[in-house]
Amino acid sequence: MMLSWHDHLMIVPIVLPMLVAGLMLLLGEGRATAKAVVNVVATVALLAVAIALLRQADAGPVRVAVYLAANWPAPFGIALALDRLSAIMLLLTAIMALGSLLYSLARWHRAGVHFHPLFQLQLMGLNGAFLTADLFNLFVFFEILLAASYGLLLHGSGPQRVKAGLHYIAVNLVGSSLFLIGVALIYGVTGTLNMADVAVRIGQVAGSDRMLMEAGAAILGVAFLIKAGAWPLNFWLPPSYAAASPPAAALFSIMTKVGVYVILRLSLLMFGEQAGESSGFVQQWILYIGLATLTFGTLGMLASQNTGRLAGFAVIISSGTLLSAIGFGRDSVTAAALFYLVSSTLALGAFFLLQELMERSRTFGADLLAVTLEAFGLDRSVDAEEDMSTTDIGVAIPAAMAFLGLSFIACALVLSGLPPLSGFVAKFALLTTILNPDGLTPEVGNPEPVLAWVLLGLLVVSGLTTVVSLTRIGIRAFWVPSSRAQPRLRVIEVFPIAAMLVLGIVLMVQAQPAMRYFTDTARALHHPGDYVRGIMSARQAGPGGANP
């Protein structure tokens, strides 16, 4: 039986950006409007495909769709695999991409050449990393997204971007080298790079080779800890994200989740119960690194005076929270962590876009929250106050100021985990699943309760620190009276920020079905037998069978 068009849908998130990027390069450098139209149409199409793939992945209790790109059976050929985790990451990438792209159309896409092709290549690398079921192809897509990110970080030029870009490139080149070394060691021991096949063979590794295999896995993990922004490998992140243009920084907020995604996927796939003596090899280390990252991000946010650097440390706090949750190794904690991943990514993307508008308001001297009479050039003299006794008291807040103020408050609530928005729901779910009765009364000598209370304390302190830091930034940005004109905002700048925040509200309102999805995702990750069987048993397309 031949494949239908629906069976080929899984390859679209990779092939479509590649073809669109090539088309835009053929258009030349001077046709920015045409490239923008093509980019928007392609990104909207990617969003529609991501929604369709999400529905496909959630069609049944266990659903792993496999696409054999060269029609060679696993583990010999290139295999793409779609499950609930990869589907939600594809959808989140498409949402962040569309929001960033629409925001860039106000002015940023004209700040340099090749913005649109680089943007699509970035999406190709991200989507490929989430879909691939092979370590070597993971490296290929990893390099594609990194190469595109180099150009996007430098987009707009300027000495600050060049300096941060050089540091960013140097660090990621080191990470790529470590990636290759780790993959080579794993291949040398197991004889395969297919993720499912590695999971099958890792429990059969001889004792004399086990240390070499674990060393390769550790080196591979370091490469992705760099990308995830984990301490002490994250010194590059705050200055790089602060220097990037707002649309590029908003898209970069999903890039750190690539590292988290791979660590979550491979740690449970390679070192689960089927790994024999290597079972749980990296779990405790991930927990310790996550706690250290969360601590570093908290201190960095408290010390930040610049809005861009503050947003960068917010990314680090998000990564630290996710790594800590992964380190506990429970499916219920993983489910809550996935809810937090989606919530925090949407809020971070909105905040990266919002910060430029906040700085613009400071440039114009707008008073956004405490709208004083001075901000409107009114006289505060005694005579003026007497004249006001016969008039209406108070000044209406302009729409632009109201939007910026409310958006800032929404971002602050989500990032700090205060009620009632999705950030509170995510952190409450995390703490509930970590501090459950079974977790508080384990076997004697198990250090998990102590670490659970440490994580509780760090989450509370990081939330308080986020409130303090954002309040300080907000006062400086919003409560400074001036007689200058109010900032002018374009609809195309306002819409992406509002859409991301509204999606966060939808996530809060639909918390129950969302948690059901994330719970099913976490169970499948912690019991990867269906994932392994789905890949290894995928049939070739043609007269003898169909590629599911």
UniProtKB/TrEMBL annotation:
The chain crosses the membrane at residues 6-27, 36-54, 60-82, 89-109, 129-153, 165-187, 215-237, 249-272, 284-303, 310-329, 335-354, 395-418, 450-470, 491-511. It is found in: Cell membrane; Membrane. It is a multi-pass membrane protein. It comes from the Bacteria. This is Monovalent cation/H+ antiporter subunit D. Residues 134-436 form the NADH:quinone oxidoreductase/Mrp antiporter transmembrane domain. Keywords: Cell membrane, Membrane, Transmembrane, Transmembrane helix. It comes from Pigmentiphaga daeguensis.
